[in-house]
Specification:
With 268 residues, the chain is of the alpha/beta class. The chain has a single domain (6-267), classed as Major capsid protein gp5 fold. It has 7 helices and 12 strands. Strands 1, 4, 9, 10 and 11 form a 5-stranded mixed beta sheet that branches. The N and C termini lie far apart (48 Å). One of its GO terms (molecular function) is hydrolase activity.
Length: 268
């Protein structure tokens, strides 16, 4: 029996297929961090910690003449976002309806994706996770308010900082929703889209990143930012009554910055 307890839900196979398909479709554009960092896994629900390859001394000797050390690990954090589905809507799906109401799932997807993006880019201190923008050793690059035409200058400056310490590209750019909208809607002098100009500077993608504050330039050469997935994003069953089924979206992961020099934060 899976820990997700899906077999106990009053949901048919067709209903589960619909929920899983909608969850995957809605998650794809929101999971910005996964498009810019190294992803390992999923390693399973039982996977509980990431090996850091380091040790700490244990106080005292367990027995005379014997030294003791302890391996350091980073425990995985579990994230869960609950939502409900109407049983009447599920019955309509079984009858062939193609427009069932899954707004609550959409909200859960957004909440969980933002939580994951925030953990990767800005950290989750209570879980021992330091974010990319926190860990960088470079000074922040100020963006200025709505000064979209100067974004190529700011991004080029960030890339130059990375190159100056030997961090090669290509590079990616995570943009807050407001910054992304400003970039996409701006046409530079001569009618050249700002989006294309930034891609040429970076050599890599611009990513719409809900939860990110400002923007972050990261190297995509690999090995610098490590996301380890235990349980990948999955829908589980909690309970139900005569009217609704209580479900949740869940994942477990750890995140580490292996090379703090490989990113630059651009701040508003």
């Amino acid at each position: 029996m899976s820990h997700l307890l899906r077999e106990h839900a009053p949901i048919t196979s067709a209903g589960w297929d619909e929920i899983d398909s909608e969850a995957r479709e809605r998650l794809a554009p929101n999971l910005a961090a996964r498009k810019l960092v190294d992803f390992t896994g999923p390693l399973g629900w039982e996977h509980s910690a990431t090996n850091l390859g380091r040790i700490v001394p244990v106080a005292g000797e367990p027995i005379a003449g014997v030294e003791a050390v302890q391996r350091r690990v980073l425990p995985l954090v579990e994230l869960r976002a609950p939502f409900t589905v109407s049983r009447a809507e599920l019955r309509d799906r079984d009858r062939g309806a193609v427009d069932i109401d899954l707004d609550a799932l959409d909200a859960a997807v957004q909440h969980l994706a933002i939580a994951e993006n925030v953990a990767v880019f800005h950290g989750l201190a209570s879980a021992g996770i330091q974010g990319v923008a926190e860990a960088t050793t470079h000074p922040d690059v100020p963006l200025g308010d709505d000064d979209w035409d100067r974004y190529p200058t700011h991004v080029a400056r960030a890339v130059e900082m990375l190159l100056s310490v030997g961090i090669t590209g290509p590079y990616g750019l995570a943009l807050s929703p407001d910054c992304y909208t400003g970039v996409v809607e701006t046409t530079e002098r001569g009618g050249y889209p700002l989006l294309d100009h930034l891609r040429k500077i970076l050599g890599g993608p611009l990513v719409w990143a809900p939860g990110v504050r400002g923007a972050v330039v990261v190297s995509l050469r690999g090995g610098d930012f490590l996301f380890e997935s235990g349980q990948d994003l999955s829908v589980g069953y909690d309970s139900h009554d005569a009217d609704v089924v209580n479900l949740y979206l869940e994942e477990s992961f750890s995140f580490r910055v292996a090379t703090p020099e490989a990113a630059v934060a651009l701040t508003m």
